[in-house]
Amino acid sequence: MTEQADQATPEQVRPTGGTNRIASLDFIRGLAVMGILAANIVAFGQPMTAYMYPDAFTVPHSAAEDWMWVVQFVLIDSKMRGLFTLLFGAGMVLFLERATARGQGRWLQVRRLFWLGMIGLVHFFFIWRGDILFLYACAGLAALLFVGLSRRKLLVLGLIGYFGGALFYTGILGFLPMMEGSQEAAFAEMAEDLESEKQTDLADGRYETQLIGDGDYGAWVNHNISEHGPEIGFVLMLFWFETLPLMLVGMAAYRYGLFDGGVEQGRQRKWGWALWIVGTALTIPVALWAKDGGLTYYGTLAAMSAWSMVPRLFAILGLLALLALWGQHVAGPLAQRVSAAGRAAFTNYLGTSVLMMLVFHGWAGGLFGELGRTELYLVTLATWAIMLLWSKPWLERFRFGPLEWLWRCLTYWRLFPLRR
């Protein structure tokens, strides 16, 4: 990239994504942002640990809700985040192509990721600790190092990285349930350490429940900064084994034409169904194993973070292929509203976190720790309705979602018109 290309004139500096959108990307992104809420709702309304471990709920978790855990594990958990990550990689290539065509360089993408990371840090510390934006920004910067590779190399490198991460996670976390509560002399010390870590995690959840329930927002933010700030580096170290490889696969999928008819439809449909069925079928035994073991702390951790990694990759890729087909011809009022939610996915993602604060924090709705899994799913349905109701009318009047517009202004360091 030449220096001249990197330094675009003011007339050249304008958003790259305002027109000629790829319909399937918006459609999949809309479904993914809705699905992410279905996965995250437990961690919004209950202690963070309750996301994987039902005994961390502050209210009883019924036998029927144990089965809901199984269904969520099989169909939703990590699948929607995986789709979102693949789309992020595809979107990076699309953005770079359009920026380059306008004489702008890779540094524009760097600035774009920088501001995403800054927004992610605000989200993490001041709104909700389950943020993925900072992770995406850092992994995206790393992905830029590989963007010049061929689509085949991107695909192979991404798959190797992902399977390597699966082996890494399985080696570290997959066998912890065997140690939990062990009375054997060889494992007694390790079992004691594991129990101590578990109790520390649960105690942190109880303390956060108290802070949120009391409506002490300042103390809660201070707790996030002092106690959970160091987790950012730890999360980056671990999740790069999943996030960066999936971004590379998403880049390859875009270049293969998966989203805009570049792959023969019958072949794409066949592979999509095959991958999704195989991935789902292999995930079911993992879920049932965790349930039969009593949904223990380390059993659920191993199931989610180790043994399900390979099966869910198949399911994610299958979903991507099928949804990319369906999304190429968006028709009907509901599908159009889903696509509109995808066009405003950034706003819907962060806006959901703000809305959940208003619902659950003690200084507002005060429902944190009060609702069980069933009631939390009802909150999810209501929030989906809000996403679908506001996104389409807004985008009929304005060029971008509110946060999409802000992100563009920060990226180009110019104030762009918002109204159509």
Give the structure's gist in a few sentences.
It contains 18 helices and no strands.
Account of the 3D structure:
The protein has helices spanning 3-6, 23-45, 63-75, 79-101, 106-126, 133-143, 151-173, 176-179, 185-214, 217-228, 231-256, 265-292, 297-307, 309-327, 333-343, 345-360, 373-397, 402-412. It has one domain (3-412). The longest helix has 30 residues, at 185-214. The two termini are 33 Å apart. It has 18 helices and no strands. Helix 4 packs across helix 14 and helix 6 (133-143) crosses helix 11. It has 420 residues and is mainly α.
List keywords for this structure.
420 residues, mainly alpha, 18 helices, 0% strand, membrane, DUF418, transmembrane, DUF418 domain-containing protein
- Cα-atom radius of gyration: 22 Å
- Fraction in beta strands: under 5%
Question: Unreliable stretches, pLDDT < 50, 5 or more residues?
Answer: 1-19
Largest sheet, in brief, is: none
How many alpha or pi helices? 18
Termini separation (Å)?
A: 33 Å
Residue-averaged pLDDT, rounded? 91
- Extended strand count: 0
- How many structural domains? 1
Layout of helices and strands:
Layout lengths: L2 H4 L16 H23 L17 H13 L3 H23 L4 H21 L6 H11 L7 H23 L2 H4 L5 H30 L2 H12 L2 H26 L8 H28 L4 H11 L1 H19 L5 H11 L1 H16 L12 H25 L4 H11 L8
